[in-house]
Amino acid sequence: MKAGTNKTNKEWHAGHRMPKNATLAQRVAWHIEHAKHCGCRPMPDSIKQEIAKKGT
Ligand SMILES: [Zn+2]
Questions:
Q1: Which of 14, 22, 28, 42 is the most buried (most CB within 10 A)?
Q2: What pLDDT was estimated at residue 20?
Q3: If you measure from the C-alpha of residue 46 to the centroid of ligand 1, how many angstroms do you get, rounded to a whole number?
């Protein structure tokens, strides 16, 4: 992981709001897209574990 890449992509966030009652599947999908477009915060371990389970 590189340092100094934790920049917030405000435009992406504006178009991709996480629903308040998001399901785990929605959260996983959101974080996968988020990681591609924005580095404001790291992916939570619980999300990483779900992705590892799916093998995607
Ligand atoms: Zn972000």
A1: 28
A2: 93
A3: 17
44-53, long-range: CB < 8 A, 24+ apart: 50/24
| Residues with CB in 5 Å of ion ligand 1 | 38, 40
Distance 53 CA to ligand 1 centre (A): 24
What pLDDT score does 54 carry?
80
CA of 23 to the centre of ligand 1 (A): 19
Q: Going residue by residue through the chain (56 aa), what tens digit of pLDDT does each one get?
A: 454 557 999 999 999 999 999 999 999 999 999 999 999 999 999 999 999 998 65
Nearest-angstrom CA–CA distance, 8 and 38: 6
